[in-house]
């Protein structure tokens, strides 16, 4: 599982993506807009971290696309993998998606997750910038 210290969350997600790429998973990062606002960086980092961990552990994915858009009002974060999903649950605490939802809700945002047809999984988080 990927881990980081909350106090040292980088503004650039590349540091998170490189170790995942070394596993053989093809990961693309698409960013647009202004840099992620400092108060939202830990949440964005953790959501991407959990989504990538899930793709590695559960999805049997070969590719993941991480899209981060900041438009001034907030950050939209989408992580989509192409995996068929694991036939049976892999080990873990089972709190990953619930933890993502709690983190997003605490910031006044929304989170949706869905299995895609014929394969894949999508995590979509919208985080508002607080005035």
Structure summarized in a few sentences:
The chain is of the alpha+beta class and 131 residues long.
Radius of gyration from the alpha-carbon trace, in angstroms: 14 Å
Give the N-to-C terminal Cα separation: 34 Å
Q: Helix fraction?
A: 25-40%
Average pLDDT for all residues: 85
Strand content: 25-35%
Number of helices: 3
Uncertain segments are 1-8
Main structural class: alpha+beta
- Number of DSSP strands? 5
Strand order, main sheet: write it out: 1-2-3-5-4
Biggest sheet, open or closed, and with what strands and sense? 5 strands, mixed
Give the helices and strands as they follow along the chain. Answer: HEHEEHEE
**Mass-distribution shape:** globular
What does this protein structure show overall?
By secondary structure, this protein is an alpha+beta fold. It has helices at residues 14-21, 41-59, 96-106, and strands at 26-33, 63-70, 74-81, 110-115, 121-128. The protein has a 5-stranded mixed sheet with strand order 1-2-3-5-4, covered by helices on one side. Helix 2 (41-59) packs antiparallel against helix 3 (96-106). Residues 1-8 have low confidence and may be disordered.
Features:
single chain; 131 residues; alpha+beta; five-stranded mixed sheet; globular; disordered N terminus
Note the topology:
Layout lengths: L13 H8 L4 E8 L7 H19 L3 E8 L3 E8 L14 H11 L3 E6 L5 E8 L3
Parallel strand pairs: 1-2
Antiparallel strand pairs: 2-3, 3-5, 4-5
Helix pairs in contact: 2-3
């Amino acid at each position: 599982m990927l881990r980081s210290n909350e106090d040292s969350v980088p503004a650039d997600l590349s540091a998170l993506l490189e170790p995942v790429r070394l596993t053989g998973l093809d990961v693309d990062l698409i960013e647009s807009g202004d840099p992620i606002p400092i108060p939202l960086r830990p949440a964005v980092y953790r959501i991407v971290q959990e989504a990538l961990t899930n793709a590695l552990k559960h999805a049997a994915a070969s590719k993941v696309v991480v899209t981060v858009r900041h438009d001034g009002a907030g950050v939209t974060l989408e992580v989509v993998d192409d995996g068929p999903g694991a036939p049976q649950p892999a080990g873990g605490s089972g709190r990953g998606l619930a933890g993502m939802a709690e983190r997003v809700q605490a910031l006044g945002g929304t989170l949706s997750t869905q299995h895609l047809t014929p394969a894949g999984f999508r995590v979509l988080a919208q985080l508002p910038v607080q005035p």
